[in-house]
């Protein structure tokens, strides 16, 4: 593979250079002359050779052949004014040009360059590296990238571009595992740098992997460079060695030396690395690594030191108090190192966890005495003193930001201060410790005399009022009294701690106590005000509510927002002020309600503009004078009603004035029509539709019927005279029609039987009306005769309805009435829940009517009406319910309060189910009742009769044992003992449990689903909460939380999911069977077909995936088929059959000039496709980047011959046209010279020479001559020119090609 060509242009750091201005020779003179517009108008150039010789090479003047452009005089004048030199500023950025040839390009998802994946990759690289990237696509499909940025950005961007756009190869390099750390470098820095420089990706096996193969991926050139660097680093490691030597631990200090002096010296002298285990690590082995010679030398020196000290050393033991050992050790062992440096003796200390006080000195005999003296001095060099200081003073002793400690450190260096519970401990030099004790004692005494603290127990609900808005109250006390106030919780109590000067603490305590007393005296009150009036109470810009708040500044008024959807306004403050504020608010509400009287006035639309007046003058005057709000319908609205709002008397006045304007402007009349009230409903129609249609049809007149209480038969019609007359005629016509269909009959029935006739929700009477079409009217409360039922309608309909009613009344007369005694204390049970129990008894017992006495009558007689057998069944059922109520008990079940919401369910659905199923009453406690309950045992239950309850579920017991039982944990169940126990068990079954299930980690992603959709659906379906482990843990354990039944259901669902997953995985394995077929690349296009038709049909028919190799792959003949084994083999046979058919076809190669290929192919292969379809052949042209003229034709022999003749004919015709066009004289310098140099015979055959050209002066040092026009490199010809190619390569004056 050819490596991607990379060209680099590097600019130096920003510099300013002085450079002379370069002027073309003779430019100043030529600039003032008129220049020719084209070569044909220039006079014949001067030649130094005579015209008779055909082989001579003519020479021409450079200025004649390449005249200068007209000069810019303004630029010249400016440049002349600026002097002879210019200052050039260059950028500090660098530029890379990266070229990716077509053969090495990766294929992208988009056909068009710059779109799809290519665009996304470039944007991502720019975002990650910060470098600017510009892309250019060549005609040969190659890519060129221009990268600008800093050096580090360029390297990163270059590497990412080659990885993203260039075809990647890979290679494995074998390197011993112990060399991996050298290749990685510190923190992987060397590996990252190597990847950036070589533009490759290097993968080193992890620690758990035993492989020794390092994989390098990238371009061929980058892989070779990276491999060389890795092998070089590995080769350097081969030269190194390591060795181990065992030296007793007691001699290690002599090898290391004081402050590691000996060890450093050994490493410098030998060049080896010596690793001595730390003092606290009990190992005798010393490791030496480095070059082989250095390791041997270091080992010899270490052994020499060990043997020398083994001969010289003696030991002596000394007893030193255990607390003083740390003074001998010193910080980080510095004192032991100091003793070793001074005396050459090693000090061996007993372990910290050992009670021994013996210190061993080891070293030369003569030095032991001196070392012993130093040890005693060091052990007694530190004094330890404890000062009594209350814990609350410690922070003052330390000072603000440690100021006192810093001062102490300056005055008394090397003194260690440690604050204990009620003491301060000082350690250090005796003299400095004494000074520190005096300094701290003075501070402590000062604070004990002048400062104090107080602790106040306060209800936490008062904290926000004590602190104030943004801490205003507390900050004021701190600033004025110089005290410190902290809110803290200790031992379950909420306290306020005040610290500071005694007088300040006293005053702060008084003020806070006064505030607390005031808060305890405060009162909260809820005022129910219709939320529709809240905006009116607040007023415009809050003016009204601000007036109330100003009058009661100590009262907090909280009005709910529109989103809260509540009517409760909360008041809080002193009791008296809250009560007064409450009265004022109610008074304000009353005033608002009085001023909110609304009336609607119908005014004909054509008069609205007169009511408004010019510029709204009339309506404004009415509003101001009557103090009302008047709303008119919008301009396009068909509604004619004007709405007036305000006080009742003002509204009536505004109404009169508006109606007066209408009456003055029109012939509005008012007429009354006498219509019997019994026809009102039929004339008005359902929903007022009939009367509305009449009003619309008659010009919008107003028709007003009298109220039902007035007993008037006058209907008022108001409007224009003609419209009123029209409406009157229609009303009278409707009345006559109703009178014809108003035959009336009366039926008498006892008043108590009326409800039987009407039926439940009017079902019986509605059935009679629908069957007969008659209208049946029962007496109202105002009628004197309560037994008369009126039937109205046509005569036959009335007779049918009367017969049906009389039949029902006859049955009702046979109805009897019974009584049953029920204790009044049980009445509430029967009538509760909108009489649900009574309705159920009535339905079970033949529709009897059960009447309980009214509340307050203190009667125990319950009346039952209906058939005798039904009354007896109802009485028996009521007595059974009363017996159950008498036998009811109340049991208590302890369930932690945090589970109550789960047990209740959404809107209490779960607990309602339990209540309905077991016919019990369940009462949940107040969640704020946190007082402990001592009677109940953990997880137990009890009855109000004192009987001991049964134990609850293990879950409830386990939770109850972990915390005390509180009032808010006790749920009370009332009902019969058996039902209560069953309901209790049902409640306990609702307590959520958590269960851990083992689900393969591979299945977790499937359980979660896209964006968690699957797991949310699973939790919703099974009503459980599922918690999956994080992906880093890779654990199989899934936690499922919910009720036991739901958890069991979820467990079974997960097991089924695992079974399905395993089956799917097995199916995937079966579908992964791969068959490879070796097919010549020339048949691949035949297999693909037009737009992939053939290969797509093969995939669909055999349900397999067929992968064809990419271009330039090593195994470009291998086609892979993936699917079930039988399907893959069938697809393979089908492919071989297609290839066999194609292989049997005749093949012929013809030569056609490559320049003519595009003409034969046509735009978008239109012409060549038509030829292939017409003659049933396949034609292949060579790729654009191959310089060959061969065209291959496949097909039947007779078709191939026909197409061959056709293509050759097309090529011949196009070639002749091409040559005719090429015969025209070319517009080139050669043509110009031919025409202008006719006097010089044969000048075009041998070319010409240009004299006085710039390259002559620039290339004299290299001995190069003027350019020869016969050179194809210097003067290439166009295709139409047909110039002959030089037989031998001619060296180019322009220099080598890039």
TrEMBL record:
Pfam families: KH_1, KH_Vigilin. CDD domains: KH-I_Vigilin_rpt1, KH-I_Vigilin_rpt10, KH-I_Vigilin_rpt11, KH-I_Vigilin_rpt12, KH-I_Vigilin_rpt13, KH-I_Vigilin_rpt14, KH-I_Vigilin_rpt2, KH-I_Vigilin_rpt3. Residues 167-235, 239-307, 312-380, 381-445, 450-517, 521-590, 595-663, 667-736, 741-810, 814-883, 887-992, 993-1059, 1071-1140, 1144-1212 form the K Homology domain. It comes from the Eukaryota. Residues 29-59, 71-94, 929-964, 1261-1283 are annotated as: Disordered. Residues 955-964 have a biased composition (Basic and acidic residues). Its main location: cytoplasm. SUPFAM superfamilies: Eukaryotic type KH-domain (KH-domain type I) (SSF54791). This is K Homology domain-containing protein.
């Amino acid at each position: 593979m050819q490596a991607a060509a990379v060209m680099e242009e590097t600019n130096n750091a920003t510099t300013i250079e002085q450079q002379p201005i370069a002027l073309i020779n003779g430019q100043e003179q030529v600039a003032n002359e008129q220049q020719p517009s084209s070569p044909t108008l220039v006079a014949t150039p001067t030649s130094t050779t005579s015209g008779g010789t055909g082989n001579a090479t003519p020479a021409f003047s450079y200025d004649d052949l390449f005249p200068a452009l007209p000069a810019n005089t303004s630029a010249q004048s400016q440049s002349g004014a600026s002097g002879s030199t210019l200052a050039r500023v260059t950028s500090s950025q660098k530029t890379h040009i990266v070229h990716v040839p077509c053969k090495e390009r990766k294929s992208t998802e988009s056909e068009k360059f710059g779109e799809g994946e290519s665009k996304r990759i470039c944007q991502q690289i720019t975002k990650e590296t910060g470098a600017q990237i510009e892309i250019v696509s060549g005609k040969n499909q190659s890519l060129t990238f221009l990268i600008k940025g800093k050096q580090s950005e360029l390297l990163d961007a270059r590497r990412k571009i080659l990885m993203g756009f260039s075809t990647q190869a890979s290679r494995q390099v074998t390197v011993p595992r112990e060399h991996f750390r050298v290749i990685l470098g510190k923190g992987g820095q060397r590996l990252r740098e190597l990847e950036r420089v070589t533009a490759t990706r290097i993968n080193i096996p992890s620690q758990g992997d035993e492989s020794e193969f390092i994989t390098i991926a990238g371009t061929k050139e980058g892989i070779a460079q990276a491999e060389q660097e890795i092998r070089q680093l590995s080769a350097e490691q081969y030269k190194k060695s390591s060795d181990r030597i065992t030296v007793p631990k007691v001699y290690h200090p002599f090898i290391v030396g004081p402050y590691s002096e000996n060890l450093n010296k050994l490493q410098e002298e030998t060049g080896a690395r010596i690793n001595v285990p730390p003092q606290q690590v009990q190992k005798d082995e010393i490791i030496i690594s480095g070059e082989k010679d250095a390791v041997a030398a270091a080992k010899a020196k270490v052994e020499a030191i060990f043997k020398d000290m083994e001969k010289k050393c003696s030991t002596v033991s000394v007893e030193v108090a255990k607390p003083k050992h740390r003074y001998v050790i010193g910080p980080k062992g510095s004192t032991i190192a100091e003793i070793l440096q001074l005396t050459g003796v090693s000090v061996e200390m007993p372990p910290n966890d050992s009670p021994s006080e013996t210190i061993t000195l080891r070293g030369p005999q003569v030095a032991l005495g001196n070392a012993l003296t130093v040890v005693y001095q060091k052990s007694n060099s530190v004094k330890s003193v404890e000062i009594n200081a209350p814990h609350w003073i410690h922070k003052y002793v330390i000072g603000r930001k440690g100021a006192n400690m810093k001062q102490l450190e300056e005055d008394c260096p090397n003194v260690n201060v440690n604050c204990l519970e009620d003491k301060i401990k000082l350690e250090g030099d005796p003299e400095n410790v004494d000074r520190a004790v005096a300094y701290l004692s003075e501070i402590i005494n000062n604070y004990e005399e002048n400062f104090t603290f107080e602790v106040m127990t306060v209800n936490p609900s008062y904290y926000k009022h004590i602190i104030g808005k943004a801490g205003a109250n507390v900050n004021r006390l701190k600033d004025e009294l110089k005290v410190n106030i902290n809110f803290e919780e200790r031992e379950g109590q909420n306290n306020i701690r005040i610290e500071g000067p005694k007088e300040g603490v006293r005053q702060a305590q008084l003020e806070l106590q006064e505030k607390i007393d005031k808060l305890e005296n405060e009162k909260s009150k809820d005022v129910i005000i219709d939320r529709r009036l809240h905006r009116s109470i607040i007023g415009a810009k809050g003016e009204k509510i601000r007036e109330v708040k100003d009058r009661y500044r100590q009262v907090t008024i909280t009005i709910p927002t529109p989103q809260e959807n509540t009517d409760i306004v909360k008041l809080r403050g002193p009791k008296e002020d809250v009560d007064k504020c409450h009265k004022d608010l109610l008074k304000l509400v009353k005033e608002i309600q009085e001023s909110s009287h609304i009336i609607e006035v119908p005014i004909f639309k054509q008069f609205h503009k007169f009511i408004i007046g010019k510029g709204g003058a009339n309506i404004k005057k009415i509003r101001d004078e009557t103090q009302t709000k008047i709303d008119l319908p919008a301009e396009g609205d068909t509604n004619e009603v004007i709405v007036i709002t305000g006080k009742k008397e003002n509204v009536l006045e505004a109404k009169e004035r508006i109606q007066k304007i209408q009456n003055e402007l029109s012939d509005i009349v008012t007429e009354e029509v006498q219509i019997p009230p019994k026809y009102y409903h039929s004339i008005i129609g359902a929903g007022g539709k009939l009367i509305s249609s009449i009003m619309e049809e008659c010009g919008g007149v107003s028709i007003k019927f009298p109220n039902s209480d007035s007993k008037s038969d006058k209907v008022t019609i108001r409007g224009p005279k003609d419209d009123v007359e029209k409406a009157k005629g229609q009303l009278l016509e409707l009345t006559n029609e109703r009178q014809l269909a108003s035959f009336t009959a009366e039926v008498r029935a006892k008043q108590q039987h009326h409800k039987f006739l009407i039926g439940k929700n009017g079902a019986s009477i509605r059935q009679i009306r629908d069957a007969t079409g008659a209208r049946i009217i029962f007496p109202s409360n105002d009628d004197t005769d309560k037994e008369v039922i009126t039937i109205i309608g046509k005569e036959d309909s009335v007779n049918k309805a009367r017969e049906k009613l009389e039949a029902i009344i006859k049955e009702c007369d046979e109805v009897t009435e019974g009584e049953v005694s029920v204790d009044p204390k049980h009445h509430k049970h029967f009538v509760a829940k909108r009489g649900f129990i009574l309705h159920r008894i009535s339905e079970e017992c033949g529709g009897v009517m059960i009447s309980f006495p009214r509340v307050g009558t203190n009667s125990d007689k319950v009346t039952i009406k209906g058939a005798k057998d039904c009354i007896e069944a109802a009485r028996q059922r009521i007595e059974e319910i009363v017996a159950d109520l008498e036998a009811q008990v109340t049991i208590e079940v302890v369930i932690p309060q945090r589970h109550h919401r789960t047990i209740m369910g959404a809107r209490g659905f779960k607990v309602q189910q339990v209540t309905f199923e077991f016919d019990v009453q369940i009462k949940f406690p107040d969640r704020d009742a946190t007082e402990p309950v001592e009677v109940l045992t953990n997880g137990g239950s009890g009855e109000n009769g004192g009987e001991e309850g049964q134990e609850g579920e293990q879950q409830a017991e386990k939770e109850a044992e972990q915390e005390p039982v509180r009032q808010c944990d006790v749920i009370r169940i009332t009902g019969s003992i058996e039902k209560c126990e069953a309901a209790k068990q049902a409640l306990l079954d609702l307590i959520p449990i958590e269960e851990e299930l083992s689900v393969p980690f591979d299945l977790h992603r499937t359980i979660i689903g896209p964006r968690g959709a699957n797991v949310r659906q699973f939790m919703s379906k099974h009503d459980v909460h599922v918690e999956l482990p994080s992906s880093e843990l890779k654990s199989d354990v899934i936690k499922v939380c919910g009720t036991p039944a739901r958890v069991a259901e979820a467990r079974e669902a997960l097991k089924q999911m695992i079974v399905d997953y395993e089956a799917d995985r097995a199916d995937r394995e079966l579908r992964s069977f791969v068959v490879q077929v070796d097919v010549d690349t020339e048949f691949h296009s035949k297999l693909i077909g037009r737009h992939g038709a053939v290969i797509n049909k093969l995939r669909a028919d055999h349900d397999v995936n067929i992968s064809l190799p990419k271009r330039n792959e090593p195994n470009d003949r291998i086609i892979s088929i993936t699917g079930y084994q039988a399907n893959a083999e069938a697809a393979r046979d089908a492919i071989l059959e297609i290839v066999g058919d194609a292989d049997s076809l005749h093949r012929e190669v013809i030569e056609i000039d490559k320049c003519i290929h595009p003409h034969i192919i046509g735009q978008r292969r239109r012409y060549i496709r038509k030829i292939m379809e017409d003659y049933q052949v396949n034609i292949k042209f060579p790729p654009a980047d191959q310089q060959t003229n061969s065209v291959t034709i496949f097909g039947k022999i007779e078709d191939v011959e026909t197409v061959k003749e056709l293509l050759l004919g097309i090529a011949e015709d196009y070639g002749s046209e091409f040559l005719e066009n090429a015969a025209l004289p070319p517009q080139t310098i050669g043509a110009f010279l031919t025409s202008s140099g006719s006097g010089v015979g044969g000048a075009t055959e041998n070319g010409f020479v240009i004299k006085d050209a710039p390259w002559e002066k620039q290339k004299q040092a290299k001995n190069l001559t003027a350019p020869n026009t016969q050179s194809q490199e210097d003067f290439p010809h166009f295709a139409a020119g047909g110039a002959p190619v030089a037989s031998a390569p001619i060296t180019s004056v322009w220099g080598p090609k890039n």
